[in-house]
Write a structure and sequence with these properties.
The protein is of the alpha/beta class and about 210 residues long. The protein has helices spanning about 15-25, 35-40, 60-65, 80-85, 100-115, 205-214; strands at about 5-10, 30-35, 50, 70, 90-95, 120, 125-130, 135-140, 145-150, 155, 155-160, 170, 175-180, 185-190, 195-200. Helices cover about 25% and strands about 30% of the residues.
Length: about 210
């Protein structure tokens, strides 16, 4: 499925109305991952498609859906990954993938770091995305920002952090950078294509998406 504009992808995890209203201005189409169809219905979101193995979407959710139903029965990928394999869009904004069951959340983060795509996931308090080769955003001094490596990471260069990442090697089970803080008016990060997640407060969604849409 090809989209020329950002797409909202809806999972089956917890979603609050604040997240829905936050993302509405940025996505021109919406797709549900399986049981996310129920969430879309609850918040009055029109769907272009429902994608997944359909083990959590109810018959009522599917019956009332006006979009395509794309059933994929293989079990080697999650519903989130099935959607990523089908959706072609300049940016994917995901809700309903963070929070709830921990195994589902970890699976979503694993898929996020594997995908070479512009994807931002929205949770109850934070947003998370794989740090691209270069990221720059005007962020308020004192704001919290965290970095979690999903593999061995080195060679990251940063400017504008209280604890800079320059020269550090990070890894699961090793060094991470949790609850770091922004000190400059602009945060700049260079990451040589490595599996590093960046977490920001979800109030910074607009400025983050501006980077990915530029």
């Amino acid at each position: 499925m090809n989209f020329a504009a950002p797409v909202l992808l809806i999972g089956n995890g917890p979603v609050d109305r604040g997240a829905v209203e936050l993302v509405r201005p940025f996505a021109e189409a919406a797709v549900a991952a399986d049981g996310g169809a129920g969430t879309a219905k609850r918040y009055g979101l029109e769907l272009a498609a429902v994608i997944g193995d359909m083990d959590s979407a109810t018959p009522e959710d599917l019956r009332d859906n006006d979009g395509k139903i794309i059933r994929i029965t293989e079990q080697q990928t999650t519903d989130f990954e099935k959607c990523l394999n089908i959706i072609n869009a300049p940016l994917i904004i995901g809700i309903g993938f963070l929070g709830g069951r921990l195994d589902h959340e970890l699976a979503a983060l694993n898929a996020l770091v594997k995908a070479d795509r512009n994807i931002v996931l929205i949770g109850g308090e934070d947003i998370v995305f794989r740090l691209p080769a270069y990221f720059e955003a005007p962020l308020p001094p004192g704001m919290r920002v965290s970095f979690f490596p999903m593999g061995v990471v080195s060679g990251v260069e940063s400017k504008g952090l209280e604890w800079e990442l320059n020269g550090l090697q990070m890894a699961p089970g090793g060094l991470i950078s949790s609850s770091n803080r922004v000190v400059g008016p602009v945060l700049q990060l260079q990451n040589p294509v490595q599996p590093l997640l960046c977490l920001l407060p979800r109030a910074q969604l607009a400025v983050t998406l501006k980077h990915f849409k530029s």
